[in-house]
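In the design runs reported in the main text, the only information available to the sequence generator was the tokenized backbone. The following block is the verbatim input for one such run; it is reproduced so that readers can re-run the procedure and compare outputs position by position.
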């Protein structure tokens, strides 16, 4: 299994995390619907391999009204 970035122990990962947070804030300030923003963040979480983030963004997208079909197909 490959090691993942640990934002608590790696200075490089901590720096990257700051950019990820900034991107999320920029999305929050945009006119994109909340459900679409969550799909974007869900896909990024899938690419990054972060199970906790995938879980969170799936739940947030569902709460924002996203359909199950689109949630299942976001990685396609």
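Verbatim output:
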């Amino acid at each position: 299994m490959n090691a993942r970035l640990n934002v608590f122990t790696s200075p490089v990962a901590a720096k990257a995390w700051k950019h990820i947070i900034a991107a999320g804030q920029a999305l929050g300030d945009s006119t994109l619907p909340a459900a679409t923003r969550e799909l974007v963040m869900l896909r990024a979480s899938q690419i990054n391999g972060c199970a906790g983030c995938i879980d969170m963004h799936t739940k947030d997208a569902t709460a924002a009204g996203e359909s199950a079909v689109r949630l299942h197909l976001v990685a396609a």
